[in-house]
Design goal:
Helix content of chain A: 10-25%
Number of domains of chain A: 3
Largest sheet of chain A: 7 strands, mixed
Distance between the termini of chain A: 38 Å
Shape of chain A: globular
Helix content of chain B: 25-40%
Strand order of the largest sheet of chain B: 4-5-8-6-7
Bound molecules: flavin-adenine dinucleotide
Low-confidence stretches of chain B: 333-340
Oligomer: heterodimer
Structural class of chain A: alpha+beta
CATH superfamily of the largest domain in chain A: Aldehyde oxidase/xanthine dehydrogenase, molybdopterin binding domain
Number of strands of chain B: 12
Strand content of chain A: 15-25%
CATH architecture of the largest domain in chain A: 2-Layer Sandwich
């Protein structure tokens, strides 16, 4: 894969190297233990009964039948469920949702747990759950977004996007000589990480030990503690590996609380693992949207207005609105810019953050609308975007901390061979007569930082241990973070042991928002720097050290030695300094977060440009994405191999969003009728071909000390629109709904 | 757990004797075990057929017909060079179904007996039109919502006039594959015409079936490139003599509760010079009487286009090698290895 990065400018010798993931062998040999690999002695297996209606009440459960089944030990229903300290309708942390834990007999969505059975074996519990055979009093479910009553989202807090308005919107509309007014729909999508949700809960007095995959260890400890009225220190979470999270494993879900409650009630460890079908219910999803985009341009093809209104579904009892309209902020230079969010309540599980929440769905609509605007302007879509390139953040006027988007456009276009693309649609055929089309989209993703802490221990033998409760959910954090850690001490990465994934470690923050490498990495770097500072003080104060007296100079660490900065003739191995001081470990600590002043001063985003080629059978309308080229600028790339994997994964999610993923509700019961992988499609290998990723060099002095932005989510942004636009270019049909299906093209 | 007996007979007589009300034959289990896990079926006894002798052969009988033992694997059959050479569209259909792993485990009898995939199967009181109406039949149901027969394999089998050999308590009988499937009704939920307790011993292709090998294609339209059931499919084959169609066969898949063979279209093609107009007329005829359900009118249109294309492809001739993506509209792309 081409790499435009100049490796010589990297700090340290580990960062910037395409190291193979450290946990790779453990994973492919099965040595890595995921939550459900834990089966403690005396464990009870829990299986919950998901509601098969979306709205109403449970009128009966055949508890006697379930209890009579051999191996079934307990049946939990709203009638006997033990007291829970925390209020399931309250939200214990900023990123929490209301949950269903058998508080009553109401059914608020299909898939909601209505009872839980414990058994000596998984089979016994499964059969017990079936024997409960719930009956319902059913009310007509509200599962159709197009028939729901919209309301204005009241801004504030997680899941309630604020929206934004800059400039005179009406004037922007009036000034337009050409405009588009289009509505795009996106479908409900379910995260479906390979590893389904799972938990193994064990109590020891009022201490709680959990094996549970979580994207946020510390925050989860606090949430679980609050539900059970125990001090947060009493909760231990072990989460060494996640088989994917995608946003769904950041907050505690109702079934997990029930499993913990069951463990306390029975005095035995309880294990729960959701089935694939159960992943379509209480574990969050990306809510469907209907997005109206009104764009206008003046004579000069400059945007006078981007007016983005997004209607998104949420549950009847909580708020998470896909912040789709937000995708129109921060990107194109428009005279006036407005993002509005409206919501509608349906009888569905509460949506949540799913890979690039808002950006993915919002950019799908925005990038297609931009394509339609370019068409109206008679311009090449890339030329039109360059024409409306923003040098400062539109609306706010803030400078970008860095923005290599122009390079992304140009390098991506070059690599793809965009030049010579016919302007009009339906002009290209391949040698087999398939309609061929090219489309593009811009990718934008913010660079948040959260808060993280880390500890570094330099040992007398010159090796080091770094600790933080960071999370590897497959993205490679255990490797990339170790690279950062090693560089902070100037050690080869093989001399660095890295511990993460356990709540007893310093708070590694949240693996979300594509901010984990920046945040946890920043904390590790700070901890290492703290060690170097202490080591420098020790050496400078020690007459036996060649560094004696260099107290006012700063020190740098390279290859296991401490150097006076700028004077390579004065240095000493770490081990010597430590051994003279008695050989004790030297421990440093550090933390990272972004100062609010910096956050206010700069607009900080990762950028990218995605180019897509599709082929479409002219008669049968089956579509295949044959090439995708994505060029991304995301600050310093710590590990190009892992970064490429993240970006490639994002492109594949883009294919999935554009062509496949869609949950279907039964209008009578409200149930999702395609709740498995035979019915809910994601791309298979044969759908994924010709993918290429370029990372464009970008130095960012502001985003954080290490110049790291983040690559976790941006790959999906821009890709969906690029594919939709390529389908138009191939066929001449604008399909304004995702996923785009054969029938949509047939009917067009 | 839900208890059931598991028996493993070593002769057909033993197998028949093991049958009881509520039992099920177990082939590769790729369909049956899934349904048991979801609770859609709950057999009291599984009769594992894997140890039955003499059911794994592919043989040419004295009369020239080809007999495929019930336990022959899907992959094994499709990759048998003689079989694939004589019946290329059957091999192509098999290879377009499911995934490599499933095809390796699945038996041919299990494939023809696989259950329809109603989305509403497990739910109470659901709307039969919920979800993907592309999977609903447009033919053979008088407009009632019904799932299509999902098997790819059966489509060319019906086109070629294959029969299933059956043994039951009352002896043996043959049924044409064309008569094997039926639409379940409220009174009779069977999706096949087998009587409970009857066992498939083999499938047989008649001697004349190999005569179509030179012009024989299966085409399957689906909403992802591989590992998806058909939205529409068609098996088309013909014998071309002196530039004219001496005989043609056309069967549509995924449009009805059973493979949909269209004798009228076949008759029309006989004696004609292959070409777009006559194929279009045949394809039109093939969808005669189709009725949309739940707004899936497009499916009728798609099936017609699929039939037309399959006829075109068959007329063009069977490719020398199996396409990398068998039966795919993208099957002409040979540059990359098959992923399916
Ligand atoms: C994810 C997935 C995708 C799939 N995609 C496709 C596809 O695209 N196209 C396609 O055609 N198929 C597809 N299939 C279905 C697949 O082809 C069938 O599961 C397989 O062929 C069944 O064969 P088996 O031997 O495993 O049958 P089993 O599961 O063992 O049995 C299936 C049925 O046949 C009965 N049976 C088995 N043997 C006999 C016998 N000798 N006599 C009488 N009855 C018998 C069983 O009792 C049972 O009712 C898919 C399956 C899965 C799981």
């Amino acid at each position: 894969m081409p790499d435009t990065l100049d490796r010589t400018i990297r700090f340290g010798s580990n960062s910037g190297q395409p190291m193979t993931r450290r946990d790779g062998i453990a994973k492919v040999t099965g040595a890595a233990t995921f939550t459900a690999d834990n089966t403690p002695d005396n464990v009870l297996h829990a299986v919950y009964v998901p509601a098969t209606i979306a709205r109403g009440r449970v009128t009966s459960l055949d508890v006697a039948a379930a209890e009579a089944h051999p191996g079934v030990t307990h049946v939990l229903t709203p009638a006997n469920r033990p007291h829970l300290h925390g209020d399931p309708e309250a939200k214990p942390t900023m990123f929490s949702f209301r949950i269903e834990v058998l508080q009553d007999d109401t059914v608020r969505y299909a898939g909601q747990p209505v009872a839980m059975v414990l058994g000596e074996t998984l089979e016994a519990a499964t059969e017990g759950a079936r024997l409960l055979a719930p009956t319902y009093e059913m009310a007509p479910p509200r599962v159709d977004l197009d028939r729901a009553e919209p309301y204005d989202v009241e801004p504030g807090g997680f899941g309630r996007p604020t929206g934004a308005s800059h400039g005179d919107i009406d004037a922007g509309h009036r000034a337009a000589v050409k405009s588009v007014d289009v509505t795009y729909s996106t479908a409900p999508q379910y995260h479906n990480a390979m590893e389904t949700h799972a938990i193994v809960a064990a109590w020891d007095g009022d201490k709680l030990h959990l094996d549970v995959p979580t994207q946020a260890l510390s925050m989860s400890c606090a949430a679980y503690a609050s539900f059970f009225d125990i001090p947060v220190e009493n909760v231990t979470i072990n989460s060494p590996y996640l088989g994917g999270g995608f946003g769904s494993k950041a907050v505690p879900i109702g079934p997990n609380i029930l499993a913990i409650l069951a463990a306390r009630m029975t005095g035995r460890p309880v294990k729960l693992m959701l089935t694939r079908q159960q992943m379509f219910g209480p574990t969050g999803h990306r809510g469907a949207t209907r997005q109206r985009l009104r764009l206008g341009i003046d004579e000069d093809a400059s945007l006078t207005v981007i007016d983005h209104d997004s209607l998104s579904e949420t549950s009847s009892f909580d708020d998470f609105h896909e912040p789709a309209a937000g995708a129109s902020q921060g990107l194109y230079a428009a005279g006036a810019l407005r993002s509005v969010h409206r919501g509608a309540r349906l009888d569905i599980g509460t949506p949540g953050a799913m890979r690039a929440p808002g950006e993915a769905s919002g950019s799908a609509a925005l990038e297609c609308a931009m394509d339609e605007m370019a068409e109206a302007a008679g311009m090449d879509p890339l030329e039109f975007r360059l024409k409306n390139y923003a040098e400062t953040e539109p609306g706010t006027g803030r400078p970008y901390s860095s923005k290599a988007l122009r390079d992304c456009y140009l390098q991506g276009a070059e690599r793809f061979g965009w030049a010579g693309r016919p302007l009009a649609p339906r002009q290209m055929r391949d040698e087999n007569g398939l309609l061929t089309g090219w489309g593009m989209g811009t990718a934008l993703f913010p660079c948040p930082m959260f808060m993280a802490e880390a500890r570094a221990t330099l040992r007398a033998d010159g090796s080091a241990l770094f600790e933080t409760s960071a999370v590897d959910m497959g993205q490679g954090a255990l490797t990339a973070l170790a690279q950062i850690a090693a560089d902070s001490l100037g050690l080869p990465v093989d001399n660095v042991e890295f511990r993460a994934g356990h709540s007893s470690l310093p708070d590694g923050g949240v693996a979300g928002g594509s901010g984990h490498t920046a945040t946890a990495g920043g904390a590790l770097h700070a901890a290492g720097s703290d060690v170097i500072r202490q080591l420098g003080e020790m050496a400078a104060a020690d007459p036996a050290s060649p560094l004696h007296g260099a107290g006012n100079a700063s020190f740098v660490a390279r290859h296991g030695r401490l150097y006076v900065d700028g004077d390579d003739s004065r240095s000493e191995p770490f081990a010597d300094i430590l051994s003279r001081a008695g050989g004790a470990d030297l421990v440093g600590s550090g933390s990272a977060s972004r100062p609010p002043e910096t956050a206010a001063q700069y607009a900080m985003y990762s950028h990218g440009a995605v180019f897509a080629e599709v082929k479409v059978d002219p008669d049968l309308c089956q579509v295949q994405v044959t090439r995708l080229v994505g060029a991304f600028a995301a600050g310093r790339i710590i590990n190009p191999k892992l970064a490429d994997s993240q970006l490639l994964g994002g492109l594949i999610w883009g294919i999935s969003f554009a062509l496949h993923e869609e949950a279907h509700h039964d209008p009578v019961t409200g149930r999702i009728v395609n709740a498995d992988f035979a019915g809910y499609h994601v791309p298979v290998n044969a759908d994924v071909r010709g993918l290429e990723v370029l990372t464009v060099h970008e130095d960012d002095p502001h985003v954080n000390l290490l110049g790291i932005k983040g690559v976790g989510e941006i790959g999906i942004v821009g890709t969906v629109g690029a594919i939709g636009n390529a389908i138009w270019h191939a066929t001449g049909h604008r399909i304004r709904r995702f996923p785009i299906r054969i029938e949509d093209l047939l009917k067009a | 757990m839900r208890p059931f007996d598991f028996v493993r007979p070593t002769s057909v007589d033993e197998a028949l004797a093991a049958w009881e009300d509520g039992a099920a034959w177990l082939g590769g289990g790729t369909n049956l075990v899934d349904l048991m896990k979801t609770g859609a079926v709950a057999p009291t006894r599984l009769i594992d057929l894997s140890r039955l002798p003499g059911m794994r052969g592919i043989e040419v009988l004295a009369d020239g017909s080809t007999r495929i033992g019930a336990l022959v694997g899907n992959s094994e059959l499709a990759n048998d060079p003689d079989f694939a050479g004589n019946f290329p569209m059957v091999a192509e259909a098999i290879l377009s179904g499911a995934s490599g792993q499933i095809r390796n485990a699945a038996t041919v009898a299990g494939n023809v007996m696989q259950h329809p995939r109603e989305a509403w199967f497990h739910g109470p009181a659901s709307d039969p039109l919920a979800g993907d109406t592309g999977k609903l039949a447009v033919l053979g149901t008088d407009g009632a919502p019904a799932a299509v027969n999902p098997s790819d394999f059966c489509v060319p089998l019906v086109a070629l006039g294959a029969v299933v050999e059956i043994v039951g308590p009352d002896g043996t009988r043959d049924i044409p594959v064309a008569d094997l499937h039926r639409m379940p009704t409220a009174d009779d939920p069977r999706h096949t015409t087998l009587t409970p307790g009857e066992l498939i011993l083999a499938l047989r292709l008649p001697p004349e079936a190999a005569g179509f090998a030179a012009h024989s294609r299966y085409l399957k339209v689906r909403d992802r490139t591989s590992f998806a059931f058909a939205l529409t499919s068609a098996a088309a084959c013909m014998r071309i003599e002196d530039g004219k169609i001496a005989e043609a066969r056309l069967t549509l898949g995924a449009v009805a509760p059973r493979p949909w063979r269209v004798a009228e279209a076949e008759d029309l093609l006989k004696g004609q010079t292959p070409g777009p107009e006559v194929f279009a007329t045949a394809a039109e005829l093939a969808l005669d009487g189709a009725r949309a359900v739940g707004g899936n009118d497009w499916k009728i249109d798609l099936a017609r286009r699929t039939a037309l294309r399959a006829l075109d492809m068959a007329a063009a001739g069977t490719p020398a090698e199996m396409p990398a993506l068998p039966a795919s509209v993208f099957g002409t792309q040979r540059k990359e290895p098959a992923h399916a």
